[in-house]
């Protein structure tokens, strides 16, 4: 009994930092609708700034003062980020801002490395709180007790701010109806900046408060972001009490998981999230989302049309160029183009459900990596000929998408996105931990193409045929009646249902097709690299695709392909430089600000202005 | 979308990819692929070790009458990206061979690439033993001492005590699992009656240290085997010390004594643990190790890490192989690496075994202590890896036929 209680206290103490960071994210999302991936970076900044300040300021006052100052400093940084990066793009398509926040992550990572160096910093101890108290004869660190005491105070303060002050009324009003708040004469821009600063400050506080239990290092940003999103979603987007309950739930479950299922450390919280979302689609205390405006912010979309004759001719020229490439290009260019084609098909498959279906998936890597693994497992364990194994990749990924889609399709918006993320993490952990089959993160190696394809040029044509073929099939489906039905379901589910379209079923089928196509990309990928590792199933991989789709332009058909090509080339160039993350981050932020409709969308608008026509076809 | 623009974009992209004109071969180039950003704390000292060795080699006239040059490339810690870079080093940059990687999965991807494309790879730092054993191939050589050997050294020490019940804690990924497996196998061979009462598997760099410490304490082990490192180790040590987990229990720490992990702990470094590591501060004057440490401190103004040593010996090994081969084509280099003797390294003469392409770099073991507010190893010894290796027959069985 005493042991249980001690464990429970450990869980509660762990919940403190998690709750602070998550409550900030939840606030920001609730008001501004921004899914802020850079939130983990503010947490990391809080840790580093906290370490520096605690070194400077002595004693009790210095320690707690440093924590408060850190919160202020990170809040200011958050305000600057909001004004410079996010303010220009509030009118962009929904979720477009997440691309900008991704750029912010990269910039902060390199700046932190420049300023504080690569070494991990051990956090200073809280003065006077070294050692343990014995509670029922079980040792409990003193600082844990302090954390447990602080958290409800912060929760109460936040609740008071939101529920009892004029500012809180405005914030709540903004979550309900932004336009109305604007119409009543409230300066929305400053409200948003204020909320973003407060959310960042909370993350910074979390980073500083955890110092006596840990420290500051350069991997903190990504290491906490998964857990934070899980907490926010389980609690219900925008609900502070929900975030509190969820962070306690996750932390306490983790502690018991460590004791009773030591191997479950990788995946437990995602399992919890999946279960919660399947039972309660809007989280524990979340309310049903106001219907998102998927791709509907700003001007209404013009209906898409297939390319005209000019368009066809141009595509043909482009393809001919690619086909002739081996004649005049060096081998490495072929490798790069194969990478590009793989990534373009992967992005196009995500773009298919995201752009045409309005289904934002955060877990699309499950199908890319799933396809790659399916082919690799066959080759590795049964020695299946490569041609057969390759065909198995889209098939297996499509089946996987059917399975995952069956659970996810019921949900909408961010909750749908998070459930796909949870499932992709399950797939990842399977590949990671089922070592007898997948070799864990030692990966599956020596998965090379058949003899007749093993030359650079032969494989180049093979990749081109299947990659471009897959992209063309997706385009064709978009222009087919099925594609129209999918778009109808995106733009107006009720009217679509009324005309006899079974929206959910169409979405389900589209999800499976997108999965199969991502799997095809995975198949091309695995035989071009010769090995596959769980990294191909990671969250980062899903986000890569998401980012290029938004970067290319959600509302255009070529967005995914162009975004992926752009990113492949830019990365290949920048990675040669010392501070490539900083530069890449700045490039992403610049593109986002200059081209809020994505690369293709903005070019199209320019083109129209130049020609006063709607020559465009996509 | 506007196709005209897209074509322009694509053409621009294609133009951007045209090769830079190759300059005349002034130097002999070696490719180096690493995670300079993602694992900066480990990759930087390694790089400086290479640069030190290169400055010495080139001051002595280089290799085959030319300067030796390394092309450093960042792979973002991603195996697929690393394979792409290896391809570029091979086909565009004219690197005669390549080396690098700290992460085992990247090392394995590169090794598979090397075997497929017949291009020589020296795996400098990856710890996964499958590189030279179950997934070994003729084109991959490895410098760093294997996990199996280091775990066996700790197991040998552990078998001397009368501890019967062991708890293990290791990060939840391949390296952690291999390290625990190696320790268990070796210890059971020496002392069949030991039992493992708790196995903890925190996610890498996401340890819930309080909970892990409670879980181990609950199992009441006689001794603990630790594989955590980096921030996980710092949190584990702090919580364990606070909660009294280490009192009266011997602790065996894999890699815990390496400066990369011991130094950040400062005066909170654990005391009395038996660890593998790199006690550079204890080398005596006149030994090759001390010469290296002094040269490194002069060259960089920093104290060496184990990565520095590995980087230094990587460049030394490659220079020795090129000199022995007398040529730079892959087959000549590969034959040179088979059974290569590298003279004058910080540990004396280094040898690459013909049976599994593994170098004979050993490991230092010793006991941790805190001196002048810093964690150090005391009573340390340098151990040759040979006695701890699996037998030749076992290795032949594991390695795919060549």
TrEMBL record, chain A:
InterPro entries to which the protein is assigned, alphabetical: ABC_transp_permease, BCAA_transport_permease, LivM-like
CDD domains, per the entry: TM_PBP1_LivH_like (cd06582), TM_PBP1_LivM_like (cd06581)
Transmembrane region(s): 6-29, 41-57, 63-86, 98-118, 145-163, 184-206, 267-285, 311-328, 334-354, 388-409, 416-437, 457-478, 508-527, 547-570, 582-603
Topology in membrane: Multi-pass membrane protein
UniProt-annotated location(s): Cell membrane
Domain of life per record: Bacteria
Keywords, alphabetical: Amino-acid transport, Cell membrane, Membrane, Transmembrane, Transmembrane helix, Transport
Primary location class: membrane
Pfam families named among the record's database cross-references: BPD_transp_2 (PF02653)
Similarity annotation: Belongs to the binding-protein-dependent transport system permease family. LivHM subfamily.
Name this protein carries in UniProt: Amino acid/amide ABC transporter membrane protein
Source species: Salipiger abyssi
From TrEMBL, chain B:
Residues in the signal sequence: 1-24
UniProt superkingdom: Bacteria
InterPro entries: BCAA_transport, Leu-bd, Leu_Ile_Val-bd, Peripla_BP_I, TAT_signal
One annotated GO biological process: amino acid transport
Species this chain originates from: Salipiger abyssi
CDD domains per the UniProt record, alphabetical: PBP1_As_SBP-like (cd06330)
Family statement: Belongs to the leucine-binding protein family.
Keyword annotations from UniProtKB, A to Z: Amino-acid transport, Signal, Transport
Domain Leucine-binding protein: 40-360
Pfam families the record matches: Peripla_BP_6
Protein name: Amino acid/amide ABC transporter substrate-binding protein
